[in-house]
Amino acid sequence: EAGVAQSPRYKIIEKRQSVAFWCNPISGHATLYWYQQILGQGPKLLIQFQNNGVVDDSQLPKDRFSAERLKGVDSTLKIQPAKLEDSAVYLCASSSLAGGRGEQYFGPGTRLTVT
Amino acid sequence: GENVEQHPSTLSVQEGDSAVIKCTYSDSASNYFPWYKQELGKRPQLIIDIRSNVGEKKDQRIAVTLNKTAKHFSLHITETQPEDSAVYFCAASKADKLIFGTGTRLQVFP
What we know:
The complex is a heterodimer of chains A (115) and B (110).
Chain A: E1 5-7, E2 10-13, E3 19-24, E4 31-37, E5 44-50, E6 53-56, E7 65-68, E8 75-79, E9 88-95, E10 105-106, E11 110-114
Parallel strand pairs in A: 2-11
Antiparallel strand pairs in A: 1-3, 3-8, 4-5, 4-9, 5-6, 7-8, 9-10, 9-11
Chain B: E1 4-7, E2 10-14, E3 19-25, E4 32-38, E5 45-51, E6 56-59, E7 62-67, E8 72-77, E9 86-94, E10 97-100, E11 104-109
Parallel strand pairs in B: 2-11
Antiparallel strand pairs in B: 1-3, 3-8, 4-5, 4-9, 6-7, 7-8, 9-10, 9-11
């Protein structure tokens, strides 16, 4: 099966600019996650979708980050305006089963550098 | 909320030796414990997982053990090979939300 797709793979922006990331999960996977992975750390969950509804966005900095999954398939994550500390790899993952019963498959990530 | 601690942060072993990475978690309701391997610049990939109703699971050279009472779980890699060199992350999950440890950089020297 095709894996989780993400684009772009790399992005360099200046602080206060905006940026958007796109994710297409594995076909049929109802649950989609966005993680932020800062260099040298483990992935940190930003937001979790079940179909097109938000399950958990408690760690999402909502003053600058937003995410949507309008049709319950692909998703976009936006940062506006970006700060230096947003430099990280943004990973998208998907899972076929809810309730902690399914393996999460990760995409290749988008490496964001904010200068 | 859940907190996952992982040790050691770096681990160097000789090829053929065993490697052990340990994690502790705080939320006794966590019920799913995967381990991910992440090579430099690549995505995390699941290598083994264990659920709270099982104490040990093996898959060829890797095994995971879980002690629910003590709230800790460990990854064991036997007969290490240079291609095992990577960063390994443990995670704990409750209700489909993964909390990751801080990672262990494993280096296997030939």
